[in-house]
Amino acid sequence: MKITIVGTGRAGSSFARALRIVGHDVDLRSHDATSVPVADLVLLCVPDDAIASVAARLEVGAGTVIAHCAGSRTLAELAPHERVASLHPLVALPDPETGAARLVGATYCVAGDELARAVVTSLRGRAIELPDHLRPLYHATACVAANHLVTLLAQVERLAEAAGLSLEDFLGLAQGALDDASRLGPARALTGPASRGDLATIDAHLAALDDSERALYVALAQAALALGDSRTVATP
Question: Can you identify the CATH homologous superfamily of domain 2-129?
């Protein structure tokens, strides 16, 4: 399949590598391109807010499918074109090499032209579909699962360094908790003072934290207490 990717950032470069790995003929172009070579698929890997404007100025062949890879946006972003699609991968793409490896075999949220499913199949991936009104919720969930988890680990890094330690000292603990949540479900995997209702320990934590760190800790401690309470209620 001849595929042109518009956008040379992490997503575009990751897709270019992955699609070449599975045998596609891929042309990678800058996001400011106004025309593209004859292709079966033009995949827009540009910032979400730029999709509509990039799609509007692109000239593509009559039979070409134009697609985006944004999780929260619908096919309406591609309105000037007749054959449209989207495929959003449920993987993080931190750099082209890692991203390409993850894209092969990934889960993709797809919509529109069946060519999108053909691309997912060629990548040995799994395709899921959602109605348009659920796409923002789906994408918010993806952001919590990846972006917010990384943001939380950034707090772990700051607190560890304040205690004279490092993020690496706590990564085994974090990985174990993630494994337990996968194996047991979040409620059963919860441990620590919130799971026991140990408010005195939580108060001691708050006293030890810098003012700038308390808001995030409080929000998550409250959620953890509620999760612990739900487990207690569910236990006969």
Answer: NAD(P)-binding Rossmann-like Domain (3.40.50.720)
